[in-house]
Amino acid sequence: MNRRVAVVGHGVIGARVAEELARGGVDGAELVGIVVRHAPDTPAGPLLTLEQALDAADLVVECAGQPVVHEIVDAVLSRGSDLVVTSVGALLDDRLGPRLGSLGPGRLLATHGAVGGLDLLASAARSGGLDTVHVRTTKKAPALVRDWMSAAEAERITQSPEPVTVFSGGPSEAARLFPDSLNVVAALATAVGSTDRVTVELVGDPSATRTTHEITASGDIGDYSFVIRNTPSAQNPRTSAVTAWSVLQTIASLTGRAPLIA
Ligand SMILES: NC(=O)C1=CN([C@@H]2O[C@H](COP(=O)(O)OP(=O)(O)OC[C@H]3O[C@@H](n4cnc5c(N)ncnc54)[C@H](OP(=O)(O)O)[C@@H]3O)[C@@H](O)[C@H]2O)C=CC1
Ligand SMILES: O=C([O-])CC(=O)C(=O)O
Fold first, then answer.
1. Can you tell me the distance from the alpha carbon of 241 to that of 258, in angstroms, rounded to the nearest whole number?
2. Best of 139, 239, 242, 247 to mutate for ligand 2, by most ligand atoms within 8 A of CB?
3. Which residue ranges of the chain lie beneath pLDDT 50?
4. Does the Cβ of 11 fall within 6 Å of ligand 1?
5. Per residue in 152-194, pLDDT tens?
6. CB of 103 within 8 A of CB of 74?
7. Is the ipTM of this complex over 0.90?
8. Which of 159, 161, 216, 219 could form a disulfide with 130 if both were Cys (CB 3.0 to 4.6 A apart)?
């Protein structure tokens, strides 16, 4: 099946996804246009309103942030189009999480994004055999400062010569407090089907040159450990450069020419 794809957002991830689709980089997927707030200088495809995108596309790809997921999810899925979300943290929000089972007829899919191993962890969780799942994310310290932090907290994060723990808690709070930095946690919690068993630690490291996601999980079925060291995007140090390619892989998995491993 050929997919007609509209991309929402034209930042670091959206622009790369749209450019690759426009050059035919994903077999069986064609870019019909992009939905933006502000017109970019060199858009990868025709600019569309969401309504126009829904007329033209059967697959919408969100690359614009958690608020946008809430804005578009009902319109896309009720039209029967599929929605791939990059801002996976939105799935843990009370506005969306409890409704996931009743949305449609379009399908909602979350990309694995900046991490991997979720297929195996989902399999282990399916067996009922995972007791604990932990993710420790380390990013360059200044990228973790947020507007809601006190000046003292911002200073603690940016001035420390050593790595500092910026957050420790559960996935829902992580996705709410760091909506553009901990979507991977929501993807992990969604894969294992639990927010209760997942714990999160976010670390700011002044000397980090890579973004590190250390995922460990354990139970009767086995012990698992994945260490992912991503190169941050040069344009947006909060985002790992591989994420756009993960979104493209997720799109590829929805085409008639899906990769043998997706
Ligand atoms: N799952 C994962 O592993 C990861 C997920 N993410 C998620 O992906 C999102 C995008 O990341 P990234 O590309 O690096 O971020 P950027 O800030 O580079 O780009 C975000 C883009 O979204 C646009 N946008 C915001 N609101 C709207 C709207 N209402 N309609 C259309 N466009 C809009 C912005 O436009 P404008 O220029 O007008 O502000 C901007 O161009 C992040 O916010 C995060 O939620 C990021 C990294 C990893
Ligand atoms: O890009 C990353 O490494 C992770 C990230 O920002 C997110 O999960 O939102």
1. 23
2. 239
3. none
4. yes
5. 999 999 999 999 999 999 999 999 999 999 999 999 999 999 9
6. yes
7. yes
8. 219
